[in-house]
Write a structure and sequence with these properties.
Layout (H helix, E strand, L loop, with lengths): L4 E3 L3 E3 L4 E4 L4 E4 L2 H13 L1 E2 L4 H12 L3 E3 L10 E7 L4 H12 L4 E11 L16 H18 L3 E8 L1 H6 L9 H16 L4 H14 L7 E5 L5 H15 L7 E5 L4 H4 L3 H11 L4 E6 L5 H8 L8 H12 L4 E6 L25 E6 L6 H11 L4 E6 L1 H8 L6 E5 L4 H8 L5 E5 L3 H16 L30 H4 L4
Parallel strand pairs: 7-8, 7-10, 8-9, 10-11, 14-15, 14-17, 15-16
Antiparallel strand pairs: 1-5, 1-6, 2-3, 3-4, 11-13, 12-13
Helix pairs in contact: 3-11, 6-14, 7-8
Length: 488
């Protein structure tokens, strides 16, 4: 069987022989022979070397991440069918890629990506870097995933779910393909990523799964544990809900720990597993070393250049898996379909009889102002609301007008903020998201008590990105990107 090499779609060769990335920068200048070989590979998409010299040069290209060597085409027809669900088109490879490589002769893997529409690249929002259109980014990411599937001797399917930045921008009517919009919205997008997915998002993904995937075709389904990112949580919850309704056709279900999020969010994996055990699930956990597939996984991860600098993400993945390798948890049964039913994102924090004037301090973007504002209006239907917004929160708050809401800048000086807190003619709420924000809230709460303010609490961070705590277990604050490492 002849070896097949496939070109990485993120690279282009110019007329002077400079090989560079679509995101900018030159990787190498090729001599005439290598430039000619690369052009043949790029034009054809895949190439089988005509002789030993070409085989050696293409193998050298593959070692550098410029192309990949496809899996042999003569693998057994009796391979076990395994569906591997992933939030984005890279998560399965990052999290469990070495184990999949070690099993490619006995398992045929189908990578099913929840997110099929994306406008994020590693240069998004950076001055001077043009932002590709959503259609172009989505096509590029699908091309990366097709190559990953070829290296695994499997298949790839994208469900068409929109990723977090697109879902954040849609309610505001903003152009997701405008680099200036993305640059201004990055802080709010980051907050959106760190908050739990909405019920509507999970329902949309459940519908896509049910309409697209025939579960009866698979002996096993591998899911993300759902750590540190709204899209990861939505993927886990939607798949578990669909699988729990599959009845007798339910395949074996395994959960892989999301890398690198398992390291970015210490303790989160333990909490998810604790919820499952509290629901009566018995779990068998396996720590899978990278073994002799480490170099192959490095090359596999290097395909996703549109999202990450290959060496940087590889070093982070190695650090995240140090001492544990990749981790896979097998469930003996599934929790009920509504086990992780989303709770309302917001709830009243003051009694309905509160003063008719309300002050809301937006120290950070909520990421979900389109959802928070209607909930705030419903909770306090007769209150006039002054929103004091920090600069990074002001743009998000300003996009939705309300006749009862007045947007004001947060004072530059902390003493002036304290004077506003001390006013006695209105109740006070604080808008803070994430664990670090809760620490800020605790400090400000002490000041609020001194000032005899009616109330002070977090409005947007009321529910966790993890399931509800078991009886007797302390509640955890919601996760946000500055602690969880989330990215748009």
């Amino acid at each position: 069987m002849r070896t097949r090499f496939l070109a990485n779609p993120n690279l282009r060769l110019d007329a002077e022989g400079r090989l560079g990335e679509l995101t900018g920068g030159t990787l190498a200048t090729l001599d005439a022979a290598d430039a000619g070989l690369w052009r043949r590979l790029q034009q054809a998409g895949e190439l089988s070397p005509a002789n030993e010299y070409e085989n050696g040069r293409l193998a050298a290209f593959a070692a550098l991440g410029w192309c990949i060597e496809a899996a042999p085409a003569d693998l057994p027809a009796t391979r076990r069918p395994v569906l591997v669900a992933e939030p984005h088109m890279d998560d399965a490879v990052f999290s469990i890629g070495a184990h999949m490589l070690s099993l490619r002769e006995s398992c045929v893997f189908t990578l099913v990506s929840a997110v099929g529409r994306s406008n994020f690249t590693r240069s998004a929002g950076q001055p001077g870097n043009p932002l590709p259109r959503t259609r172009e980014v989505s096509a590029l990411r699908c091309a990366e995933s097709r190559l990953a599937a070829a290296m695994l001797a499997g298949h790839h399917l994208a469900l068409g779910f929109e990723d977090a930045p697109l879902r954040h921008l849609r309610p505001y009517g903003l152009d997701a393909d405008d680099a200036a919009v993305i640059e201004r919205a990055l802080a709010a997008i980051g907050a959106f990523v760190g908050r739990p997915p909405s019920t509507a998002d999970i329902d949309t993904l459940k519908t896509l799964i049910s309409e697209t995937v025939d579960l009866s075709r698979y002996a096993e389904v591998w899911l993300p544990l759902g750590l540190g990112h709204a899209d990861h949580v939505a993927t886990r919850d939607a798949w578990l809900s669909v699988l729990s309704r599959a009845g007798a056709a339910t395949p074996t279900v395994r959960l892989y720990e999301d890398l690198p999020y398992a390291a970015r969010v210490p303790g989160a994996a333990h909490q998810v597993l604790a919820r499952l055990r509290a629901a009566g699930c018995r779990i068998k956990s396996e720590q899978l070393g990278l073994g002799d597939t480490e170099e192959a996984k490095r090359r596999l991860c290097g395909l996703y250049r549109s999202q990450f600098e290959p060496q940087a993400i590889w070093q982070e993945l190695l650090a995240a898996s140090k001492g544990r390798g990749e981790v896979l948890h097998t469930l003996d049964r599934l929790p009920g379909p509504d086990f992780w039913q989303a709770r309302p994102a917001t709830a009243p924090l003051l009694p309905a009889s509160c003063p008719q004037a309300l002050a809301l301090y937006a120290f950070t973007p909520s990421g979900r102002w389109a959802e928070d504002l209607p909930a705030l209006r419903a909770a306090y239907p007769h209150a006039r609301i002054d929103v004091y917004a920090a600069p990074e929160a002001a743009a998000e708050c300003a996009r939705l007008a309300d006749p009862r809401l007045t947007l004001r800048p947060l004072p530059d000086k902390g003493l002036d903020t304290l004077r506003l807190l001390a006013r006695q003619d209105r109740a006070t709420l604080g808008l803070l998201v994430g664990p670090r924000r809760w620490q800020q809230a605790a400090r400000l709460l002490c000041l609020a008590r001194l000032a005899r303010v009616h109330a002070f609490a977090s409005f947007a961070g009321l529910r966790s990105a993890l399931p509800a705590p078991a009886a007797g277990e302390a509640a955890q604050p919601s996760l946000d990107p500055d602690t969880a490492g989330g990215r748009p």
